[in-house]
Design brief:
The chain has about 120 residues and is an all-beta fold. It contains no helices and eleven strands.
Amino acid sequence: VQLQASGGGLVQPGGSLRLSCAASGFTLDDYAIGWFRQAPGKEREFVGNLGWSGGSTVYADDVKGRFTISRDNAKNTVSLQMNSLKPEDTAVYYCAARMYGSRLTKSSSYNLWGQGTQVTVSS
């Protein structure tokens, strides 16, 4: 049972990146997926959540309208599409999973975590 986040990189302000969270050993559609990020010297913070099996999404205020979480059940992945990126979006991004959850905004609500992927927004 494993989660793996990928897709990070260096992007200019205003640009876009798409992160992917892939599951192995279990069906991701049975799980709520959360995205979190941690910038240097700061605590890990909530970015967004997608409820299990077609559940609703919830986003942090500072990414609302710019970030979108979606599922691809055929690939057993969840993506975080990030548009209009800002330097303050620079952080290590993590995906996390919790079975049958919905609208989970606290990191303590999740019991499966992937390794982080670095996102750097800089000119």
